[in-house]
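Readers of this paper often ask what the protein records in our data store actually look like. This encoding replaces a full spatial description with a residue-level series of whole-number codes. For reference, a complete record is included directly beneath this paragraph.
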Amino acid sequence: MLPGVGHDAFYEPRGGDTFAATPATAGPWDAASQHAGPPSALFARAFERHEPVEGQRLARVAVDILRPVPVAPLTLRVRTVRPGRRITLVEGVAEADGQEVLHARGWRIAQSQQPAPVAVDGGAVDGGAVGDAEVPDLPADGRVGVWPGAHSAGYMEAMEWRFVTGAFMRPGPAQVWMRPRLPLVAGEETSPVCRTMMVADSGNGVSAHLDPTRWLFVNVDLTVVLHRQPRGEWILLDATTTIGPDGAALAASRLSDCDGAIGQGMQTLVVSPR
């Protein structure tokens, strides 16, 4: 059990395709609802394991959030939509308390035996060394400070944060190194793609333009595309939020590891006054 978190993992297996969410999954908006990062990672885990094809890797995961996901047991149902040797499309549904709470799809793509010429749009993201990044200020009780009244004892404390630019409650774009402090599922090593999914759903939070004590800006989806397999534990989130005039917004994140760019994440946000 990790000091300061009080849990051994984000989920405890309950047999079959059911996983009990621990309080470490709780997001900052509501202690009774999960941050979307852990359940999105749970889908990535399921997509990597479902009817695997040798030589394929998970390159894209898209998750639609139908309603708040309670901190309760989740049951995943996964099926293959389009089987193939070069590409495989899988999809899944997550249920909690008798309701469908998440839908997701994932593309697995065969890894080429001959390396392709590398091209990275916009160049590499310069996030510097993880050790040079700023550790967020912590209140006297040791909790990660997000905003007054936020629930910090779940996901916020179960992740490590190292800001390169920006900070919690500092409006505008941000670059932050992140990694989970706990395994996704108890007793298992978390895959690189699953770690990335847990990080990617924080793009809208770290790059917020609005005061979260006055505004809600929650995402209704998360899409992550990885042009290469992540390496190492740390993921750099280079996030920007763009807000429109009619209640919709977009959080876009470039994702990198310590060796360079790995992909991008995107979230559709609904913006409304509290």
In short: The longest strand covers residues 260-273. The chain has one domain: 11-111+127-273. Residues 125 and 191 are 23 Å apart (CA to CA). The chain has a mean pLDDT of 90.
